From TrEMBL:
SMART domains: ARM, Ubox
Protein keywords: Repeat, Transferase, Ubl conjugation pathway
Catalytic activity: S-ubiquitinyl-[E2 ubiquitin-conjugating enzyme]-L-cysteine + [acceptor protein]-L-lysine = [E2 ubiquitin-conjugating enzyme]-L-cysteine + N(6)-ubiquitinyl-[acceptor protein]-L-lysine
Name of the protein in question: RING-type E3 ubiquitin transferase
Stretches assigned to the U-box domain: 4-79
Gene Ontology process terms (BP): protein ubiquitination
Domain of life of the source: Eukaryota
UniProt xrefs under InterPro entries: ARM-like (IPR011989), ARM-type_fold (IPR016024), ARM_PUB (IPR058678), Armadillo (IPR000225), RING-Ubox_PUB (IPR045210), Ubox_domain (IPR003613), Znf_RING/FYVE/PHD (IPR013083)
PANTHER family: U BOX DOMAIN-CONTAINING, U-BOX DOMAIN-CONTAINING PROTEIN 8
Length: 371
């Protein structure tokens, strides 16, 4: 692509398109990394004129040329991006880069990092995380495309377990939660929720994210008012966080239970997974018991849901029936015992185990059988 661009866009040393053009005292322009490397090697002459330079040469940013290059929304050749991603990263870090040039850079980096673990590690080592966070900080409310591409790259960088803790330490959660709290696009909210799910794979991150002000509250708010995909991703993120014991009460305190139950009634089966986990805590069970028609909703999933939905509906009913005689009686009245007997030979091992557990509780009358 750069073969069709003006020669003065290229650094005289590297012969590549300049990302950070600077003027030497000789009057010639070079890409900062190239000329800095030349000077660090001890050279004190201009690479072009061979004339002597001061002991400490000053590098003056060539803002005019940099702006001109940006308007071309330049992208290096594919092999160059893979071997030298720093060029695109510098575009993200530069306050003078245009939105279009940043979007193009993010698109290229996201495409290459999606399936290439080695390239992701190279990006992280090259400072891509801080560049993406800087890019997110500089996004204005109307730059939806830029926000979406930055979040997509951040999601890719979070795929490797070795990077998950580092991303949180660098402040990724602050930016992600900010997107969940603001009225952004549906796609951006969904991406932000997915990033939380990815980061929460690491146990210590579950605690850190759950304790972050507004994180769980924002996910619950999306479950309540969001649209299709973002609601599914919010439910998945909430499930990941609530696998950590301390986060369950936080979710209940944010009003998650009634919102989840209404979501399940409306067909969001993924909400049953969160209900199954919240039913493990006393506060969650109390909210479920007070929700009218709770057992009927769970039984409907039990008889009509997917294997995963059935698995968590069984888990929730087992918790409720074990701790509440009233819930146990209501469950029996719904004919759940016969339904469970039909599930003990299910192909899914977890469904078989959970149905056997519920059968045991129902037959024992909830006599404090520990499952």
């Amino acid at each position: 692509m750069d073969s069709h661009l003006p020669d003065h866009f290229k650094c005289p040393i590297s012969l590549e398109i300049m990302s950070d053009p600077v003027i030497l005292s000789s009057g010639h322009t070079f890409d900062r990394p190239s000329i800095q490397r030349w000077l660090d090697e001890g050279h004190r002459t201009c690479p072009i004129t061979k004339l002597p330079l001061p002991a400490n040469p000053t590098l003056i940013p060539n803002h005019a040329l940099r702006s001109l290059i940006s308007t071309y929304t330049l992208l290096p050749p594919l092999h160059q991006i893979i071997s030298q991603p720093e060029t695109l990263i510098s575009i993200l870090k530069s306050p003078s880069s245009s939105s279009d040039s940043k979007i193009d850079s993010l698109r290229q980096l996201a495409r290459l990092s999606k399936r290439d673990a080695n390239f992701r590690r190279r990006l992280v080592d090259s400072g891509a995380v801080s560049a993406v966070l800087f890019c997110l900080d500089c996004c204005s409310s109307g730059e939806t495309k830029l926000q979406e591409k930055a979040l997509s790259l951040l999601l890719n960088l979070s795929l490797d377990d070795d990077s998950k803790i580092g991303l949180v330490a660098e402040g990724a959660i602050d930016r992600v939660v900010a997107f969940l709290l603001r009225e952004g696009s549906s796609d951006c909210c969904a991406l932000a929720a997915t990033i939380i799910t990815s980061l929460a794979v690491v146990e210590v991150n579950k605690a850190t994210i759950g304790a972050f002000p507004g994180a769980i509250e924002a996910l619950v708010a999306i479950l309540k008012d969001g649209k299709g995909r973002e609601r599914k991703e919010a439910a998945t993120a909430l499930y990941a966080l609530c696998c950590f014991r301390d986060n369950r009460k936080r979710a209940v305190d944010c009003g998650a239970v009634p919102i989840l139950m209404r979501s399940v009634e409306c067909g969001l089966e993924r909400g049953v997974e969160v209900i199954g986990v919240l039913a493990k805590c006393k506060e969650g069970r109390e909210e479920l018991e007070s929700y009218g028609g709770c057992v009927k909703i769970l039984v409907h999933v039990l008889r009509n849901g997917s294997s995963r939905g059935i698995q968590y509906a069984l888990l929730a009913l087992t918790s409720l029936c074990f701790h509440s005689k009233e819930m146990l009686l209501v469950t029996l009245q719904e004919g759940v015992l016969d339904t469970c007997l039909g599930l003990v030979d299910d192909d899914n091992e977890k469904v078989r185990r959970n149905s056997s557990n519920l059968i045991r509780v129902l037959r024992s009358g909830g006599n404090h059988w520990m499952y």
